[in-house]
Amino acid sequence: MELSTVAAIMSTPRLLQPQRHRIGAGFQAEGWREPLALLDPFIMVDHFRMSEAAFAPHPHAGFSAVTYLFDDSATGLISRDSLGGEYAIQPGGLHWTLAGRGVMHDEFPAEAGREAHGLQIFVNLPADQKLRAPEVRRIAPEQMARRAGIGWQSVQVFGGAGEPALTIVDIDAGASFDIALADTEQGFAIAIQGSGQAGELPLSTGRALSLPQGSQIRLQADEPLRLACFSGRPLREPVVRHGPFVMSDEGQIVAALQRFQSGGMGRLSPRTTSSTDKKETLS
Questions:
Q1: Where do the structural domains in the chain lie, given as residue ranges?
Q2: What pLDDT sits at residue 8?
Q3: Given a cut of 90, is residue 205 above it in pLDDT?
Q4: Of 127, 165, 123, which Cα lies nearest the Cα of 144?
Q5: Which is nearest to 119 in space by CA: 62, 166, 78, 53?
Q6: Could you give the CA distance from residue 41 to residue 204 in angstroms, rounded to a whole number?
Q7: CATH top-level class for 144-234?
């Protein structure tokens, strides 16, 4: 593809098609992973619904694994890690696992049979932070900044001012909302529910719209529209992905595999039915 064609794609808003996947009867998601250049600094976003445990304990390295639960989630999630933490993520809350050089991780619904509804977000780490020590950060709903205008309201879930950011925007039917990105930032907006228009492009549930650098876009809601709006300064650094590892080169991937296999990312036993008895609430 010619450079001029690539530049045109990068500078023009476009619809991004999801990849749909399901694990058993208890997990389904629509995910966005490509094109990576348009998602940068994000690696992946899944809009998921989970009613039963779908994943065994698994490793992460080289990025942050972030879980946000929508306020309409019927139950919370329990998040466990090899750092010794076990936390309850409440509806409307955020749990941020900065994996760094590696950590074991597990999440499952707080109440089996009830549906957790949220976003699983992989945020890339800059090359000079990929081997940093892992840590956990949490944000309660009441700690998130809220704004409102004529026919819309928003929740700043995390980030902003040049950092990777997520904002949930609810727009009333017939109302509009303006997205304005800095010249150094790009992003994308996922229609979580409802329908509307972004210029000449139609938005409906399960569709995503790319937001090129410096975007100035008016979103018009045909019916009540909920959007998850992502933005950030692209890293534009080499990325090598291998399963749950996102590194800068093949050597780092090999080293991450060796750390995992030797127990260097810690240990996390499969959960027991009593594990929810000792959970720590989100604060």
A1: 15-143, 144-234
A2: 43
A3: yes
A4: 165
A5: 166
A6: 24
A7: mainly beta
